Amino acid sequence: MKNLLEVGFNVVGFDKHAYVGGLWNFNEQKDAISVLHSTVANGSKHRGCFTDFPFPDDLDIDHGTETPDFPPAADMHRYLVSYAKHFGILPRAQLNTVVHRAEWNPDTGLWDIETTTDGDPSIVRSFDKVVYSMGPDQIPNIPSIPGLDLFEGEAAHSIAFKRPEEWTGKRVLVVGFGNTAADVACELAGTAEKVYLSHRNGSIVVGQSDINLHNFGFLGTATNHKSQLPRWVDNKPVDHIRTYRKGVFLDQLSRYAPGIWTKLMNKVILGLRDKLYDLKPEWGFDPAPSVNQARPIISDYLVDLLSREQINSMPPIQQITSAQQVEFTDGTTADVDAIIWCTGYTVDYSILGKSDPTIYQESRIRSANGRKIPRLYQNLLSLEHPESLAFMGNLSFMNPAFLMFDLATMALGQVWSGRSPLPPQEEMIKAVDKQHQWIAELAAKGAVTPGLVKGADWLDWVEETAGLGMKENLGYGMQGWWFWMSNRSLCKVLMDGLLLPFHYRLFDGKRKKWDGAEEAILKVNEELRVKNETKKWQ
Predict the structure, then answer these.
(1) Mean pLDDT of all residues in the chain?
(2) Cα 423–chain centre separation
């Protein structure tokens, strides 16, 4: 909303909840996707913010005056509320409002949006443009298991898991092997009588570790791979190894030698995993998926709890054999009182009618949990209505989420305001076909995150479309050399200091420049220098 307001659009937002902040606000309702009380951001506050709104120094009222380097869920939600207040979004957000229909009207050339607010009668309003921002995680996915109808215990999707105390004394089977499954299993350990973790795929697992990674440090800067290293490296946040100079080099390597890059990433990340942990074969971490198509498990406690047998790793479920007994593919069985499905979600664009971008699917493409992959230009724009229909939440590559969607909406604002024209539709269709062919090749090797893009190529498109000015001023052309000669000390910080979201608002360009960007960049890098010298990290 904020980036579209900046280019002059009259924006209204609809949300079915009574609050802003989405899943970062803990919600007790069993059908609401939300964080747990124990959730902590995987990225640091320095790189995990928006491009023109740093985390306020006094945001964390629960833990002191300074927000922790890795903010807990409550701080993340407070940050989003502060952002909405600061940029005047709240008066434009219609909360407690459900959207029932958003369909293109060819007679008027507008979008008819049917909504209800607080249970009042539905109304239909017309809009010039629509941004569908519900993301891919909408409908809980429950796998089809033979004999499931025989089970008499409690079977719930992870969306309903809110507090571990609700499962006290129960024998619980957690199904899945992603971050949600790891979080749920770890939360249950010590509360449930028995915790089983059933999964069919391997995984990379990382946690908070102070292992010396200087020999690997540059590998953490690739923009088109999902795997992340531990939260801490040499007693500082791991994402602080990211610099603009390293990113440029590695983007080129990933673009022109992707095979070598993938092999190198797999070797280093798996080597790091094995150096951090003594993983037993029976836990099923191997074979691990390639790091360029699957998210790692980021958990500080999973391996330790497996070692203590407070969590028991199990093979995939073969069938349910009785009211409480589960049989696994190796023939073993377990008696359980409850099953928690940590098996992801499916996407639902049905309110868009014929404009649903997943209507036409290629059967050869299999994404995570069989989810459909929308046909979108740059994973952002409708092919049928690129001038008026966009989608947020279908982007995935190794970059902080807030930064990624901030950049996406900067580019969208320039496209829809007419300052950055789109290519002909035939060219956009070819680009989507090429993207889906790449996804199909990855899917042949295992499940793929549906929104995965080649980060280096996507950022190049954003750079040009949003008009960021970074390549011109930090490159090796005449403008870059002039900037270096005129601002040597600043240029040094921009190239070799921490790459911050504020970099993307520093230079004049098409999107709105933030006048506070330079000050914020210098301030953060100076604070980090002091912290590195004094080791005063939180």
Answers:
(1) 88
(2) 28
